[in-house]
Amino acid sequence: MCPLNFGYSVSEVKVIDLNQEKPVWLKKIFKLEPSLYRCISCGNCAAICTAGHFTEMKFYRLCLNAFRGQTSELKNNAKACILCGKCQFACPRGVNIRHAIMLITQIQQP
Amino acid sequence: MMHPFTIPFVVGFTMMFIVLIIRYSNWFRGFSIENRKRIANHMFSRKTIQALNEIFKESLLHLKIYKTNPILGYMHMSFAFGWFLLIVGGKLETWYYTGNFVNPPQYAIFFRFFHPVTEATTIHRIFDFYMEFSLLIVLSGLAIAMVKRIRKRVTGIKNTTHHTRANRFALTVLWFIFPLRLLAESATTSIHGGGSYLTKITSTLPFHTTVELPLWWAYSISLGMFFLCLPFSRYLHIPTEMITILLKKWGVKPELKLTTNKGLQAFEIHSCSGCGICLDACPAIGVGNNKFQSVYFINEMRNGKDHYKTTGLCLSCGSCQQSCPVGIKLEPLRIAARENLNSTMQFIHTYLPSKMILWPETTNVILYTGCMGRMNPRTTKSIKKLLAEANIEYIHVDEDENICCGRPMALAGAKEQAEIMISRNRDIIHSYNGKVLVTTCPICFKQFKNSYNLNLPVMHHSMYINQLMEKGKLKRHQSELNFSYHDPCELGRAFNCYDAPREVLKHAGNVIQLSMEKEKSLCCGNNMGTILLKREDRQQITDKTLTVLSKNNPDYIVTSCPVCKNTLSQQSSIPVKDIAEVLTELPGIKQKKEPSASPLPQGKAD
Ligand code: SF4
Ligand code: SF4
Ligand code: SF4
Ligand code: SF4
Predict the structure, then answer these.
(1) Model-level pTM?
(2) Which value does ipTM take for this structure?
(3) How many domains does chain B have?
(4) How far is it, in rounded angstroms, from Cα B383 to Cα B388?
(5) B526 FRET partner, CA 20 to 30 A, in B58, B143, B343, B547?
(6) pLDDT class for B400, splitting at 50, 70, 90?
(7) B470 alpha carbon – ligand 2 mean position (Å)
(8) Is residue B262 within 8 Å of B30, Cβ to Cβ?
């Protein structure tokens, strides 16, 4: 028997799964740069970003995706950063964005 | 002459030489071909004499430490120079006594034991006097060293270094050497007679004949132990420092890749005396729980320990390098260490726009405001106003979009990656026919100067404004306003540019003298050099800096770096301005309007 059809369904990719365990390498990044936990996804960092001006790179998205465990594009996006540091001046939460990006570009994703 | 009690000394001394030769030849093997050529070319030139002069001044007299802290300087001087006097004196004494120039070292060192009563000629008396005087110098230094360990405040230093076990052992042995020498000589004098003024006094102590030889044994053992420890402790810096001075004078350059036991870097790392002067110089000392100052960093490098934190926390403010009496190039060392640590970082910057130009536009000034300029549109507006006022043609090359100068990337340890930004920016700058490149950011300025190889001169805007004022192209009314000027690290310490901005400010008001300024100025706390320092810690540094700047209630705190300006203004109750803004925005210093002044050109003057 097919289940009741409500005429809509929940898309798998949009589910936020808070139970999901972070992969080990991601945990390590959060451990080395705990200020990442402070990010509130305000978007200031992306508004001012040179890399974001030319590419898809948006740090707040990186951060958000990392929290949600959507990590496939993490490293590739981070590679566009030029470490200029403007984002850190704009960040209201004092996230060490440059260090976080340096760590992300160094991860050996399985 | 070869009494068995001299054996510990002879063994220790010989071992030291063997170990030193092995270690040094390893480091020497790391020299690149170019460096070897440099050594060969300069070895027999005037450079060597200059180096010897410097060795005398710095390794023996320690003049630089003396200038920073006279008591500490005296302590180092009395040890090194006093010991040197003893060695020279011993040499001369044995030469005079035996008629041979070449004598084994132990003969000179234990001379008093072999010849307690030298014949009472005037020359002998002079020798005795001289030797005891030298010993007294060393002992006085020792007294200060002991007091320093016990009560560091007495010597006027706030922070002393904490040592590893090997170092502490060597230190303890060192402390014993000279008092033992005095005791042994006194015992001999008291039993056999002779001596000069110092032992005349000390030999009145009731020495029994049986203590003489054990005292000499103890003296010999302590010397031997010290020499045995020397190549493995921080005292390795004594011979290494001298060789480093020679190498630097011969023009030897650091090897491209940092290895702690190769090339010039090995010599530099091992010539740190652990004096701790870099601790007091660091703006981050006492902030948070961070022990990353250069002495710790160098120690970790020496001992092959993990140095991720000590390299990454540092702000690259240059203060420790400025004050290091040994002249170790600490900033390049740190950046080279970061290059090793972050070598797996990957970036892709092919997206950065490049510029193709067929007909270069001609202009006077090429204005570059950099990333931080984008966050300080006011400064940019002000400098443009000033250029227009002085009737200078300019083109603002990064008005619409900007590529970072590459220094933050290089500071993070990705020198090669920075090259992409450098070449793109260079193309953009070279695509104009400008007379001078003016930048409002000291970070960019440093990068342009040191890494760009541009075909035109580069000036920081404070220098350029000063030049305009000197030429009379910009005039200001001197007001009653008081300014505190904050020296940005990358402009002040990096380029000794202290006067230009102050001269500019003097045209507009009074510049207040500060307790910490010019080469001693504190970092604003947000230098791009740091990678790991937490925001809270950075804010504390900013607070400390602001305390200095706010003294005497200035009307404005002025700086000439967008990073410093942003950082300071976040936490300051006194308004913070860029030097260009001072000239354009403040009401009290309204420009003197010349009656014949033509209407000012707006924007891109052409
Ligand atoms: S500016 Fe800071 S808090 Fe805001 S999204 Fe970026 S990292 Fe997060
Ligand atoms: S440091 Fe990277 S993420 Fe931050 S503004 Fe610059 S390019 Fe963007
Ligand atoms: S780095 Fe320089 S200032 Fe610091 S302890 Fe070593 S010699 Fe002294
Ligand atoms: S460069 Fe500045 S912040 Fe870094 S250790 Fe030296 S004094 Fe401290």
Answers:
(1) 0.88
(2) 0.85
(3) 4
(4) 9
(5) B343
(6) confident
(7) 39
(8) yes
